[in-house]
């Protein structure tokens, strides 16, 4: 039993997969509603997540929305990459997204899942990404994007655990 005032150790994110097909997950000490609130604050995550430089909800109809993102990070080799995403929300448990259009991106799709577990939730991000890059740059791209995925999961965990 943990004494009051003693911080629980933070769960480390895990990452499985390679070459643009990944599953990242982390246990977050928060209720599902808080996790959902943070995850769907699309415009509020600008400047919080390391690669998202701009985000704007372009349209919303019920649980479907279109989002414009601008990414800039080591994995973009310093370039600003724009993408339009179609998102389908299934609150408060999951969302799926797919690329409508983007710069230097052949394919991008994924799902976010929030699964309640005793006293916490498991946040999971499955992603398939295919950059439009020359073959010689792809290994560096994937290595840098893997680091970004783990860092983003840590940042989301910390933000979700804030009260």
Describe the secondary-structure layout.
Layout: E1 14-18, E2 21-28, H1 32-39, E3 52-61, E4 64-71, E5 81-90, E6 94-102, E7 105-117, E8 120-131, H2 138-161
Antiparallel strand pairs: 1-2, 2-8, 3-4, 4-5, 5-6, 6-7, 7-8
Helix pairs in contact: 1-2
CATH class, named Alpha Beta
Strand order of the largest sheet: 1-2-8-7-6-5-4-3
Q: Report strand %.
A: over 45%
Order of helices and strands: EEHEEEEEEH
Rg calc: 16 Å
Task: Describe the main β-sheet briefly.
Answer: 8 strands, antiparallel
List segments where confidence is low: pLDDT < 50 over at least 5 consecutive residues: 1-6
Named CATH topology: Alpha-D-Glucose-1,6-Bisphosphate, Chain A, domain 4
- Helices, by number, come to 2
From the N-terminal CA to the C-terminal CA, the straight-line distance is: 22 Å
Summarize the structure.
The chain is of the alpha+beta class and 163 residues long.
Tell me what you see in this structure:
The chain is of the alpha+beta class. The protein has one domain: START domain (Alpha-D-Glucose-1,6-Bisphosphate, Chain A, domain 4). It has two helices and eight strands; from the N terminus they run E-E-H-E-E-E-E-E-E-H. It has an eight-stranded antiparallel sheet with strand order 1-2-8-7-6-5-4-3, with helices on one face. Strand 5 and strand 6 form a beta hairpin. The chain is globular.
């Amino acid at each position: 039993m943990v004494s009051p005032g003693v911080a629980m150790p933070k769960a480390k994110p895990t990452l499985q997969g390679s070459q643009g097909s990944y599953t990242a997950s982390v246990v977050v000490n928060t209720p599902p509603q808080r996790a959902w609130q943070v995850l769907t604050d699309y415009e509020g995550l600008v400047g919080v997540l390391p690669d998202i430089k701009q985000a704007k909800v372009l349209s919303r109809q019920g649980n479907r929305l279109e989002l414009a993102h601008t990414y800039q990070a080591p994995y973009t080799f310093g370039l600003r990459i724009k993408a339009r995403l179609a998102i389908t929300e299934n609150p408060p448990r999951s969302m799926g997204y797919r690329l409508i259009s983007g710069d230097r991106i052949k394919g991008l799709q994924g799902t976010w899942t929030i699964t309640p577990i005793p006293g916490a939730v498991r946040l999971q991000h499955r992603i398939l990404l295919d950059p439009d890059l020359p073959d010689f740059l792809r290994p560096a791209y994937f290595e840098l994007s893997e680091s970004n995925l783990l860092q983003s999961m840590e940042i989301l965990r910390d933000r979700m655990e804030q009260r």
